Amino acid sequence: MKIAVLPGDGIGKEIVKEAIKVLNALDEKFEMEEAPVGGAGYEAKGHPLPDSTLALAKEADAILFGAVGDWKYDSLERALRPEQAILGLRKHLQLFANFRPAICYPQLTGASSLKPEIVSGLDILIVRELNGDVYFGTPRGNRKAPDGPFEGAREGFDTMRYSEPEVQRIAHVAFQAAQKRGKRLTSVDKANVLETSQLWKDVMIDVAKQYPDVELSHMYVDNAAMQLVKAPKSFDVIVTGNLFGDILSDQAAMLTGSIGMLPSASLDKNNKGLYEPSHGSAPDIAGKGIANPLATILSAAMMLRYSLNKAEQAERIEKAVQKVLEAGYRTGDIATPGCRQVGTAEMGDAVLAAL
Ligand SMILES: NC(=O)C1=CN([C@@H]2O[C@H](COP(=O)(O)OP(=O)(O)OC[C@H]3O[C@@H](n4cnc5c(N)ncnc54)[C@H](O)[C@@H]3O)[C@@H](O)[C@H]2O)C=CC1
Ligand SMILES: CC(C)CC(=O)C(=O)O
Ligand SMILES: [Mg+2]
């Protein structure tokens, strides 16, 4: 089985190194091939998603991805910015279903910025649509405003759009995920304002007829943001679009203690997938050896479970992560008084030792 390893930029390189260390210590042996992506792709080959990197991603059985981006590329034309690499991979490989589980490990209830009783026992799943919405909608661009009170002024515009089949396919994924969990699905939209959201909601209601065992509810995204900090445990599975899911999953990360704890799986219709932490390249801490590698290590576990059919190996990693948390190991982002504060590599070593 072949894994394409795309570390990317910033802390991406540091955290992927730890996940590889853990994967290499398992009983299974995987073929791994590394390629540059993001800013690293631009520096090496003049493009954030070089053809050779995309070819490797297509040919591999699964992709382990770090993160892309750096402030130094902010003035590049958009097509050459590092972020286009992850957007391009999601689109080219039709990775439309993004799973972001937010679990607050018992050892980390004190690490969340919320009161322990709000987050203790939290186990929710955000299913984010990943191929559509305003991130990919056309037309988009810059122009002179054609009308309105600022007619003639410089204007930027994007298009939020979803088609019925696009919503249907993510709805089925979300309902099936809910069937395997608490059988409650909350569809998050802004149907009180947006046509895109009204279609989203109508399709969810329609698909729900095929899943009578799952209780479907609807919530506007502004209220969902509020409920996520007020009563996060009231959710089981949340399904939402690309933009709302991006924002709500960062918010949900803080319920678990840190964004450095939130893994993700981005799957196509055959469960081929790209696995990455939910966070970015964290330029503010890159190169310091202090990033939390656990979201990436847990993403590698998701890869074993969803794409490589190695559920026992996935469980070994997940249990090892729990053991190191139990033993008090903490990177700075999840540190609490009296913990054993460690850096990125020491955290990786601790997981390795706990396998
Ligand atoms: N999938 C991807 O590759 C993503 C890339 N980005 C890119 O990353 C760059 C930085 O974006 P930001 O908005 O700052 O988001 P970010 O997620 O990189 O960082 C946000 C905050 O969380 C902290 N953080 C993130 N991961 C951490 C970890 N593993 N351990 C400890 N602390 C961690 C950072 O230090 C920072 O204070 C930008 O270029 C952005 O476009 C952002 C999100 C996802
Ligand atoms: C480049 C962004 C769309 C990536 C991001 O923020 C995410 O997927 O969470
Ligand atoms: Mg994001």
Automatic annotation (TrEMBL):
Q: What class of enzyme is it?
A: oxidoreductase
E.C. numbers: 1.1.1.85
The molecular function GO annotations come to: 3-isopropylmalate dehydrogenase activity; magnesium ion binding; NAD binding
Which residues are listed under the site Important for catalysis? Answer: 135, 190
Q: Which SMART domains match?
A: Iso_dh (SM01329)
Pfam families named in the record: Iso_dh
Q: Please give the cofactor(s) recorded in the UniProt entry for this protein.
A: Mn(2+); Mg(2+)
Location of the Isopropylmalate dehydrogenase-like domain: 2-351
Tell whether Metal-binding is among the UniProt keywords: yes
Q: Where does Mg(2+) bind?
A: 222, 246, 250
Per UniProt, NAD(+) binds at 280-292
Q: Name one GO cellular component term.
A: cytosol
Annotated substrate binding sites: 90, 100, 128, 222
Q: How is the cofactor bound?
A: Binds 1 Mg(2+) or Mn(2+) ion per subunit.
Q: Does the keyword Transferase apply?
A: no
The record's principal subcellular location, in a coarse class, is cytoplasm
GO biological process per UniProt: L-leucine biosynthetic process
Give the pathway listed in the UniProt entry for this protein: Amino-acid biosynthesis; L-leucine biosynthesis; L-leucine from 3-methyl-2-oxobutanoate: step 3/4
Domain of life of the native organism: Bacteria
Q: Which InterPro entries match?
A: IsoCit/isopropylmalate_DH_CS, IsoPropMal-DH-like_dom, Isopropylmalate_DH
What are the record keywords, sorted?
A: Amino-acid biosynthesis, Branched-chain amino acid biosynthesis, Cytoplasm, Leucine biosynthesis, Magnesium, Manganese, Metal-binding, NAD, Oxidoreductase
Q: Where in the cell is it found?
A: Cytoplasm
Q: So what family is this one in? A: Belongs to the isocitrate and isopropylmalate dehydrogenases family. LeuB type 1 subfamily.
Q: Name the HAMAP family on file.
A: LeuB_type1
Quaternary structure per UniProt? Homodimer.
Identify this protein by name: 3-isopropylmalate dehydrogenase
What are the top taxonomic ranks of the organism? Bacteria, Pseudomonadati, Pseudomonadota, Betaproteobacteria, Burkholderiales
